[in-house]
Automatic annotation (TrEMBL):
Membrane topology: Multi-pass membrane protein
Gene that this polypeptide is encoded by: Contig8255.g8800
SUPFAM superfamilies cross-referenced by the UniProt entry: MFS general substrate transporter (SSF103473)
InterPro entries linked to this entry: MFS, MFS_trans_sf, MFS_Vesicular_Transporter
Gene Ontology MF terms in the entry: transmembrane transporter activity
A Pfam family per the record: MFS_1
GO terms for cellular component: membrane
Key word Membrane present: yes
UniProt keywords, alphabetically: Membrane, Transmembrane, Transmembrane helix, Transport
Domain of life: Eukaryota
Protein name: Mfs-type transporter slc18b1
Signal peptide: none
Length: 454
């Protein structure tokens, strides 16, 4: 895919050079379509300049990845890191299983030895207690053995309750406790083995669009990238016409948006873990809509055309963009995990979401400059910026009314009808206690009969 991208970018570079040649030919400027031609030529040249920058980045990325792949091997650097982490996880799981298995085997062996010694001692005492009554001795031994076998049968039937006690004793040991506190790798490994035994469905990109949550996440990503790039082809002309800025000052104005985005990206993941993802997206889109009214000062509310208002709007937009580009990625994953009637593989979901996210990101980065240039050519820059803000307000309102509020109502309804887990736990504890009492009662009866025979 990288090679194909480089080929297309090389074609774009050739087209850009041909346009430069066409622009230098005087015959095209003497035609009756000179105005339309020059307008379209300027627009296409701006697009090709962006493609040239993208081409340079693609070439550099190809060289770096090829160099690392040559050093590491055919798997590449990222696959190599993943393989190392999986190997480390596998070794930790094997060590932990050996320790837990050793503890469990010791416990089972001790329990079996104690019970066997008790049973042998009881039989020996019975044989020594009555030397003259062979018939009475045989009957007593037969009864005791049958009751002991009955106790063993009940223990086998109640193996789950016994296993619970054994696991508790194992977990109390210092070696097992230290391992259990370090990680939950055994549970994860067992879940992975269980999941691999179940057939998985194939994941398609259409599954994302079939989910309402996934469809809105796609729209969020496109709008975020469009908001970030719509002023690339129109803001320089606005700054030059209104304030007389030269290209060096225009570059500094554009830097404000990127700096704010980089800073807030460091905190976006922490905020999304503490708050609802949909709520984060809605609030961030409202903030972006407000920033759009500042980038191109809204004349309906009589904002003055000041350059510092435009810079402030770019700063606000860059800071809010991290909250409208990171949470939708997680929303795409949730949409596939919650897809009804399908059992998708987790790794396949991550790969599909990663590919879809990159495609949507590039789509928004493409529609942004096109939207900004053509709407600005038909109207002006301030109206284009305000219109982009209105789109963000509209999408945030849809998500609030049709997604966030219904989800919160459903959560509150489930809390009311949800069965308390303490009730189930208490019933299970009572059942375990009844089994222990029954076992103790049987052992007491055996002890009394042994004492009577003596």
């Amino acid at each position: 895919m990288i090679r194909i991208g480089c080929i297309f970018n090389a074609i774009a570079a050739g087209g850009f050079m041909s346009l430069e040649y066409v622009n230098s030919v005087q015959i095209f400027h003497n035609s009756k379509f000179s105005v339309q031609f020059s307008w379209a030529l300027d627009f296409v040249q701006e697009l090709f300049k962006g493609l040239l920058l993208d081409w340079f980045g693609s070439v550099v990325g190809l060289l770096i990845s090829s160099f690392l792949s040559y050093l590491v091997g055919y798997q590449g650097p990222f696959a190599f890191c993943e393989k190392v982490m999986k190997q480390r996880k596998k070794s930790m799981v094997m060590n932990k299983e050996m320790v837990i298995g050793f503890q469990a085997n010791d416990f089972y062996q001790i329990q079996n030895d104690d019970f066997e010694i008790m049973r042998n001692n009881q039989i020996v005492e019975i044989e020594l207690s009555d030397k003259n009554g062979k018939k009475q001795k045989e009957e007593t031994v037969f009864k005791l053995r049958s009751k002991i076998e009955r106790v063993d049968t009940e223990n086998d039937l109640d193996d789950k309750s016994i296993n619970v006690d054994i696991v508790k004793d194992i977990e109390d040991s210092p070696r097992a406790e230290s391992l259990m506190n370090n990680s939950g790798l055994i549970i994860d490994d067992q879940n992975d083995k269980l999941e691999t035994s179940i057939p998985k469905d194939r994941v398609h990109y259409l599954h994302i669009l079939q989910s309402p949550r996934g469809l809105m996440a796609c729209l969020d990503i496109i709008l975020c990238c469009q908001m970030f790039t719509f002023c690339d082809t129109s803001l320089p002309y606005y700054l030059e016409e209104e304030f007389g800025f030269n290209p060096s000052i225009v570059c500094l104005v554009f830097v404000a948006q990127s700096i704010a985005f980089v800073i807030t990206c460091l905190f976006a993941s922490k905020l999304t873990k503490r708050f609802n993802l949909m709520l984060c997206i809605i609030i961030a889109q409202v903030i972006q809509g407000v920033s759009a009214q500042l980038i191109g000062p809204n004349q309906m509310i009589q904002l003055p055309k000041l350059y510092w208002l435009t810079i402030l709007g770019l700063l606000i937009n860059g800071g809010a963009s991290s909250m409208t580009i990171i949470p939708p990625y997680k929303q795409l994953e949730i949409a596939l995990f919650e897809f009804k009637g399908k059992n998708f593989d987790h790794e396949a979901i991550k790969d599909t979401v990663s590919g879809g996210f990159n495609a949507l990101y590039d789509l928004g980065a493409t529609t942004g400059p096109v939207f900004g240039y053509y709407v600005t050519a038909l109207t002006d820059f301030t109206f284009t910026s305000n219109l982009q803000g209105y789109l963000l307000f509209f999408v945030s309102l849809i998500q609030l009314l049709f997604f966030y509020i219904p989800e919160k109502l459903e959560e509150n309804r489930n809390k009311v009808i949800k069965i308390k887990p303490t009730t189930i736990a208490s019933e299970q504890n009572l059942r375990e206690q009844d089994i222990k009492r029954l076992q103790q009662r049987m052992k007491d009866q055996i002890d009394r009969q042994i004492n009577m025979t003596q």
